[in-house]
Amino acid sequence: MSTPSNSPHPSNPPHPLRLSADRDRCAGAGMCALTAPEVFDQDDEEGLVVLLSPAPGPEHRAAARMAVGLCPAGAIALDAPDPAEQ
């Protein structure tokens, strides 16, 4: 018996999440790196955001979305929202 074709496989999401980070806007608060360390870091020199994974896997999407909302400077953006999670 096969699985239904309308249920996406976790390792092959239908619509990847895309992130961008504006280092000119970043205030260096570090909320992104604390919330989603697999996706964001801070540089050692200025403490500004470093985007480690612009297209995080399904296991890191919730934390990445939370980091976007927690950024006090609004320096992180969702470039293509995931329609499956809307």
Please count the beta strands (DSSP E, at least 2 residues each): 4
Major β-sheet profile = 2 strands, antiparallel
Strand order of the largest sheet: 1-4
Provide the succession of SSEs: EHEEHE
* Broad structural category: alpha+beta
Shape: globular
Helix content: 10-25%
Rg of Cα set: 15 Å
Low-confidence segments, given as residue ranges, are 1-13
Q: Ends: how far apart?
A: 30 Å
Number of helices: 2
Could you tell me the strand content as a percent range? 15-25%
Mean pLDDT: 84
Walkthrough of the structure:
The chain has 86 residues and is an alpha+beta fold. The protein is 17% helix and 17% strand. A two-stranded antiparallel sheet has the order 1-4. β2 and β3 (49-51) form a beta hairpin.
Key features?
86 residues; two-stranded antiparallel sheet; globular; 2 helices; single chain; alpha+beta
What order do the helices and strands come in, and which of them pair?
Blueprint: E1 18-21, H1 31-35, E2 40-42, E3 49-51, H2 61-70, E4 76-80
Antiparallel strand pairs: 1-4, 2-3
Short description:
By secondary structure, this protein is of the alpha+beta class.
